[in-house]
Amino acid sequence: MTPRITLAVAHRVLIQLRRDRRTSVMLLVLPCLVMSLLWWMFQDKPGFGFGALAPALLALIPFIIMFLVTSVTTLRERTSGTLERLLAMPMGKGDFLVGYALAFGLVAAVQSALAVGLSVWALDLHVQGPVWMLLLVAVVDAVLGSALGLFVSAFARTEFQAVQFMPALVVPQILLCGLFVARDELPPALHTISDLLPLSYAVDAMRKVARDSHPAMWGDLGLVAAFAVAGLVLGALTLRRQSE
Amino acid sequence: MKKSGVEVSGLRVVRGGTEVLHELTFAISPGEVTGLLGPSGCGKTTLMRAIVGVQRIAGGTVLVFGERAGAATLRSRIGYVTQAVSVYDDLTVEENLRFFASVLGIDHGRVPHYIGLVDLDAERGKVVSRLSGGQRSRVSLAVALLGEPELIVLDEPTVGLDPVLRQELWRTFHRLADEGAAVLVSSHVMDEANRCDRLLLMREGRIIADDSPDGLLAKTGAEDIEAAFLDLVAEVAS
User: Fold this and answer.
1) Residue B219: half-sphere exposure toward Cβ, Cα within 13 Å
2) What stretches of B118-195 adopt beta strand conformation (E)?
3) CB-based contact (8 Å) between A3 and chain B?
4) Which DSSP helix (H) or strand (E) runs through A47?
């Protein structure tokens, strides 16, 4: 890997995003709208509600969005021939993957800063732990989404297929992450499965930060990061310099 | 000792269970423009991919500058243009070249030079998706020329270009060859054959002629390359 090339990839991805104004605006504004909607839903039900669900949602949004954005963008690189061209150049696979992760991690940081800022200061979300920890979890979560998106893009031929991986890989994680039914109240088999899914730990980390003034979230965050790294390694295996 | 360019011997490629290249053996010399001519589907692209090192091969060897095709050390020495326009649609001409220049470690100050080579100075700030088909393929070509590669492999680079521009590009290819590069250009249009120093005629995964245009005409007694090609096909069939 070469820092010059990694940064060039990240820079290029950011230029492409900036050029696509509508996508940029949606990336930044949509999470805020979703948080506002959630807050509004519980307006007439004080107490439980927004405060309990918001941290989980703050973990879900960057993961889902970056999963979709990355799987479609990298699929485009695979089909347009630019990926083959890059792999025929002195570019390491790590440069490509980490470049993407850097760019989307940065976008996720801005995106989450807006959503977290809005939730904490405008929508009155009570966070016991430090606010920066929420942001950190969101960014690692976004990188996880990117890594998985990159990996699954290898198994899709068209954008339609790529988007279908969302209900296949993402929705089960949303269902089992503890948002609907607390994880330890799930049937044992599902509880075990939820223990193997990265999003469960991202949501746990977010909740701990919201609930405790000294949150013990590093273990959870470490696991999410490990899943992200594993995703990138699997992604690297799908980047082939030679094909049949 | 003469510098070796590309040496292919006994090359076999199997795709989807069928052998598409059958025991090809030939060489490409630096300082020459070699034309790879043959009808669509005869295996030109597969052969080019094998030389560039992105095609898995079933047998034989492909050596580029004495190293196995696809070796990491070759990556900055080869420029390859596929038939698909492999550049980013949503970047400008200049942004595309700057990006690939960064990957290759080439100073951004050199970018305008390459834009000039393919005559896109007026379009440098335009987003690629807004360009015409011919202009897009020239952006792709400019990327392949970055950093003066010693082997330039161009898959049908002149398709869809107007005659004036086509002539200019052929001039560029010859200038690159004069500067010492090995240039391999494929085409399914036989009338481009006269612009090459050497010709490889291909049909159904085999090379049926390997000669200079004049040599080929002399050997077959045909009036033009197209007629020579047909003669050779008839000869192989009989």
Assistant:
1) 15
2) 151-155, 182-187
3) no
4) none
pLDDT(B1) > 50: no
Q: Give strand pairing partners of B55.
A: A243
User: Band of the pLDDT at B70, cuts 50, 70, 90?
Assistant: confident
- Nearest C-alpha neighbor of B152 from the set B237, B212, B77: B77
- The mean pLDDT of chain B is 90
* Phi and psi at residue B31, to the nearest 5°: 85, 5
Contact B86 A8 (CB under 8 A): no
Model pLDDT, residue A159:
85
Q: Which residues from A are below 8 Å from B54, CB to CB?
A: 84, 87-88, 241-243
CA dist list (Å): B80 to A3, A103, B148, B156, B176: 24, 27, 12, 11, 14
Sign of the Cα torsion A128, A129, A131, A137 reads: negative
Q: In chain A, whose CA is at the least distance from the CA of B14?
A: A244
* 190-219 in chain B: CB under 8 A from chain A: none
What DSSP string runs through A121-144?
A: IIS----SS-HHHHHHHHHHHHHH
pLDDT digits (tens, 9 = 90+) for B88-101: 999 999 999 999 99
Phi, psi torsion values for A43, nearest 5 degrees = -55, -40
DSSP B16: T
* pLDDT, mean over chain A: 90
Q: Does A243 touch chain B (CB under 8 A)?
A: yes
- Distance CA(A127)–CA(B67), nearest Å, equals 61
Q: Which of B72, B88, B95 sits opposite A82 (nearest CB)?
A: B88
Assigned token pair, A141: 């979560």
Q: Which amino acid is it at A15?
A: I
Terminal-residue alpha carbon distance, chain A: 26
Q: Residue A6's closest chain B neighbor by CA?
A: B103
Name the phi and psi angles at A91, rounded to 5. Answer: -115, 130
Q: What is the pLDDT of residue A194?
A: 95
